[in-house]
Structures are given as structure tokens and as C-alpha cells.
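Lecture 7, part B: from sequences to assemblies.

Below are the input chains for today's worked example.
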Amino acid sequence: MSSTDKEYEQKMQSTIQGMIDAEQKALRKRRRQSEEAEACECKDGMFPSSRSDETDLTTRRKFLAGAAAVGASAMTSSAARAAVPAGSIDYPVQDDPTKVQGRLTSDDDGYGSRSQFEDAIRTRFPTATRESSWTMTPLDDSSGIITPSGLHFERHHGGIPNINPATHSLILHGMVNGAKKYSMEDLKRFPSVSRFHFIECSGNGLTEWRQPTLKTVQGTHGLTSTSEWTGVPLSTLLREVGVQDGAAWILAEGADAAVMTRSVPLDKAWDDAMVVYAQNGEALRPEQGYPLRLLLPGFEGNTHIKWLRRLEISDKPFMTREETSKYTDLLQGGKARQFSFTMEAKSVITFPSGEMKLPGSGFYEVSGLAWSGRGRVKRVEVSADGGNTWQLAELQNPVMPVCHTRFRFPWQWDGKPAVLQSRCQDETGYVQPTIKELVQARGLDGGKYGSIYHLNGIQSWAVAANGEVSNVHQY
Amino acid sequence: MYINIKLKSVSTNWLCGAVAMAISVTVVPMAIAGPYDFGSTPTAEEIAAIDIDVMPDGRGLPSGSGGHAAGKEVYAAKCMACHGADFAGVAGTGGAALLGGRGSLDSGKPKKTVESYWPYASTVFDYVKRAMPFNAPGSLSDDEIYSVVAYLLGEANIIDKTATLDAKSLPEVEMPNQDGFISDPRPDVFNYD
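Predicted structure of the full complex, as C-alpha cells:
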């Protein structure tokens, strides 16, 4: 090995190690939690839920609350005042809620919060800066298809700007008959549409190309989330400004410190692109681009420009940093794919998944998510024997195009080691491949983890005889 | 004025609805096609203030110019702390390696940098103008940007160290990996049934 090779290997190892360490830290907290939960015989043991950044007090209080639930009255006022999980308020817990009045109506000042006993949170990938970083959705705690807005994954390149909607505007210009400037009020006057769509970062799973690296489904798949998005079809705005002959691309630009930019094919803009101002029934969250973001159903997350301030219509792509240096796919042989927008069909089992522990043989409802950037999910199959045999899973209605689809599969575990997998097919007939098939087609570009973007391979979870679930590669 | 438009729109809507009802049982109101004419016409200044992008053919490049010597000073003062004296990036800052790695793309251990991977010089100008220096984005003058781009490309032996970059010369720069990109052929795994 040459010295530069060695240096390269060391750098690669230390980056991966940093990530594993961060996840391990979060997991240690979870395990402590689940041991305590097992001690009190509540079923939390199967569903690890306590995450990083929690104080020991929280864990202890949660344990006490569990004890209280089985009859002991151990809740003390100091425990009740302990720090509570993000997004919740520490309210007193009554020994017997049927014997005292509950908390006052509107005591929350008119905006509710989740229970202080719920602690699923986004976890941050340990990048060098917190301005350019990402967090992952806790899919292992997910139900149904909607991601709560506060748990939607994030990717920022220059922090999260705090924008006053009264002063924000969107300018459309370039190869148009008449440039236009829209205030948020203007945009809200247009006929609106609401659609359910997933957004997935094309870097989702980037650590998993070569070998199983992260332990939980949050780590391996947490860069996808689904929301109901409301806004104006971009085609409406294009008709307003009048697109000139020869136009073929649109530059979308954000008002953050990265002044994030991507070139979008005009066809996509006419087809199903939207500029959206609402998410899950309320205004966009700041982390999701408040007050306005672009939504390009089925395209990689980076193109859904947040804090959208400008759309420039042009004849050629702009070749911004995010579509040259980043978000291109270097292949074996040294050439790189560019403008690889589509998120291909993908699925993952979220229960049971990495780092959970099944309490014993018997019935389990295997459940997970499937999605495709090319349309509806047509079917999902589940294998409990590492891909030797497959059976159809049940799809939860409604099955919407370019949207997370929940699948369920009744599984009788015989207590022997098993490997659980899911694979989906979308309405184009495309079937989710194995990681091996993707590597055969593209090679491992030799980056830190192999390739980087667009890993949509089949995920394998090994269930050991003792019930422990872990991330494995099995083709 | 607003009320008038609204009234007109509503009556059009009813008419269309009536036509639709006459030929089918559809009761969904037909959309009003517009134009709605909301919003205002931005002034040339308003557009210019945010129209900062630069394209490979040089469209969008501002006036001004800069060369290697001035760029060296800009780099030392405003870039080096994060990107390093050796352009290899400073650990812990997130500052990426900017130079090196040429010829490494098919080696199995690719090192992607401006020098080895970026297909267009315009992207360097565009990106530095919008996002760098990371601790003070958008703070450089156009001359400073031309200079620091000339410095980086000069140190990479992509352009001559005596060269001056401006709106005319920058788009003429040929980057080593300018032919390194292909379009997306996916789907690339065929398990269709």
C-alpha cells in the first residue's frame, strides 16, 4: 500500500468510525432504557425508544412513570420537573387521573405538543459543521405513512434561515414574456392543490453500499419522509409569465446562506412540480423551507429547493455546484452520471428493525414503508429466509403515487435465526434490486463508503435466536 | 377592481360548469384557466440584485477581473483557515479539499476536487460568489472572486499563473474533467415482470 493509499484508508476509517460512534452513543442510551423497561415488564423492550441527548433524569422519570402505570405511586414532583423530550411539555402526572381534574383547557396557549412520554427524535449525522448537516427521521417509531412535520428529515448547507413571510417574494424571470414578482399573499390567491408525496435525499443509505454500517433503520433509511404538501402548481405560474420558445431548464434558488441552487428540466416544471407553502395542514416548518419551497415529486431531495426566492427560465442547465461536484454518481471507469433525478422504487421493514429485540417466538406483524419516484407502489413482498422465498405483503390504502406506502405482513416466528427482507415493485414494473445488483451495474466508486447516491437496494435485518435484530447484507 | 375580476371569474365558472353538465354528469367545476395577473413586475434592479448565477458559457459573469497574485492574498485571508495552505481541507471545519486528485477518478480511490472533478470554471465563480467564505457568504467583491478563482486554477495548473480572469476569459477555461459526465440511463437494473 502506498502512503497516499494508507492516508486515504485512515481518513475513510476515521469518518466511518465517527458516525458509528455517534450512533452507538444514542444506542447506549436506548439500551439502558430498554433494560429498565424489561425490568418493569412493559413491552417497551421490543420497541427501543429512548434516544440520544436525553438526560438520565428523563430515563429515570420514564421508568418511574412505567412503575406508576402498574400501580405503584412513585411519581415525585422533582421527577415530574425533569427535562422532557423535545417537542413536549412537562406536565404533572396524576397518580389516578380519574380522581383529580386534569390540566386546564388551552393551558398550552393554543398549540398542542406531544406527550412527554414520547421521545422519538431526529438524529444528526456528525458532519464537521452544524450549518451543513443532516438529521434523519426515526422510521423505527413510525406508524402509517405521514411523517410528523417536526420529524421530517433535514439537510441544510448553510443553516436554517428565519424568514419573515411578509418580506419574502418569489421572482420568475429569464426566458419569459413578462417577469413576475410574487409575495406570499399573491401566491396564496392562485388555485391551490394538496398532494401527499415523499421527499427522499439521494444520499439516503450512503453508508450501506459496501457493508452494513449503521445499526438502526433511522441510520440506514431515515432520509425519507412523507407529508401532505399544499401550494400552487408551477405550471400555473409558467402560464402567467409565458415561457419563450427554446426554454428547457429552470434554475431554482433558495434564500439561505448557501443560496442553494439546482437546475430543473422544464418538462418536470410543466408536469407535476409545485411551489408549496403548507405541510401537513399548516405552514411549512422553517427546516422545510418556510415560507416557500419547490416540490418536485419523485426527484432527489436536494432539488426541492427550500426558502425559494427565484426561478430563472433558461435554455441550458446552469451547472451549479450541487449538480456537478455533488449529487453526481461516479461510476466504475471514472465517468459520472449527472442529473440523476429520479428516486427509484425502494422499501424497508421498519418493524422489526436494527437494534430491536423480539421477546420470543410467536406472532409478529412485520411492517414497513415502500415508495417510488416513478409512481404508485404496485406490490411489496416480504421474505423471512433471506430472499429464498417471498410472500405478498398487504398494502395499506390509500396507495398514492410518489408517496410512502405502508405494508404489513403477518409473521409467525419459530424462534430460529431468520433474515427479514422486503422488496417492492412500482407501477412501471420496476422491481427493487439487491445492493449487489446495483453494485454490478454501477461499481463502487471508491468513495468513503462505496458509491454515494441512489442506493435503493433491498435491506436485510437478521433476527438472532435470542431475538436481537441487526443490520446485515444478504443477497 | 379586485371585486370586478372576481365576479367575472365566478360567472365564467358557472357557465363552464353548465356546459360540462350539459354534456356529461360531471359536477366538478371546471378550472378557470387564468391568466390571474397576480403579483407585480419586478424592476430590473430587483432582478439584478438576486440574479447572481453564472453559466458555463459565461452568461451572468459580472464586469471586473482578477489574477493569481491578488487571488493568493484573498485565499490566505479568507479561505485558507478552512481549506488549508495545501488546499487539502482543514479537518473539523468542513472545508473540502479544493485541489489535487487529478487522474484519480478511475483509480478506485477517487479524490473529487475542483481540480479533478469539476467540469466548468463557471461553477467555481458561481459557487464562491453565492456561498463562500462559509463564515461570511456573499461578502467578496467580483474582483476578489475572479482573483481567487484565478489563483485556485493557477495552482492547479489549469490556467497560467500570469493569466487574468474576466467575463471573456473565464468561460474559455478548459477543466480537466469537462468530458467526465454522462446522462442518467436508469433504470439500470432490469428485474421487470
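Note for the exam: The first strand of chain B starts at residue 65 and ends at 67. Keep this in mind when comparing with the next example.
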